[in-house]
Amino acid sequence: MPNIQLVIAGDGDDRPRLEALAQESGVQEQVFFLGSLPASSSELLYSYSNCEIFALPSKGEGFGLVFLEAMAFGKPVIGGAHGGTPDVIEDGVTGYLVKHGDVGQLANVLTGLLTDPQLRNAMGARARERVRTHYLFRSFADQLERALCPPAAQA
């Protein structure tokens, strides 16, 4: 897929290794390292808005707020099948869960999404809807009220 670009937002200990890998693989012209971006920066919002897929298949994610951010922009997401990520991503519905370190599985789901715009768009739409119905404040408040104030038992 010669027209694919990889944009990496964030910084960390792994960046020098990833930069060297891009160089060694000959794809340095297609890989862009943005560094750390503030949560409300226009560059971060632009990145979410213009990406086709959001992927963070790390093993260190807790809840994964970044998945919700990408989903709110209608993007299918790929995350690790562990920690809090499976609570956010519905595997095969709003994105995919992959086993950490399984490069073949990651490549397969990326290829599937990149080559099937209809699937990508449908997953993105379901992702946006999941954020709207499960994670916005009104939804949270309704769920909390139902948990704390259940309807009175009827005789």
3D architecture notes:
The chain has 155 residues and is α/β, with parallel strands linked by helices. It has a domain at 53-146: Rossmann fold. It is built from 7 helices and 5 strands; from the N terminus they run E-H-E-H-E-H-E-H-E-H-H-H. The strands form 2 sheets. It has a 3-stranded parallel β-sheet, with helices on both faces. It has a two-stranded parallel ribbon with strand order 1-2. The longest helix has 18 residues, at 117-134. The N and C termini lie far apart (65 Å). The model has no long low-confidence stretch (mean pLDDT 90).
Distance between the termini: 65 Å
Mean pLDDT: 90
Low-confidence stretches: none
What is the CATH T-level topology of the domain at 53-146?
Rossmann fold
| SSE string, helices as H and strands as E | EHEHEHEHEHHH
Supply the helix-strand structural class: alpha/beta
Could you outline the blueprint of secondary structure elements for this entry?
Blueprint: E1 6-9, H1 15-25, E2 31-35, H2 42-50, E3 54-56, H3 65-72, E4 77-80, H4 85-88, E5 95-98, H5 103-115, H6 117-134, H7 137-148
Parallel strand pairs: 1-2, 3-4, 4-5
Summary tags:
alpha/beta, Rossmann fold, two-stranded parallel sheet, 48% helix
Task: Put the structure in a nutshell.
The protein has helices at residues 15-25, 42-50, 65-72, 85-88, 103-115, 117-134, 137-148, and strands at residues 6-9, 31-35, 54-56, 77-80, 95-98.
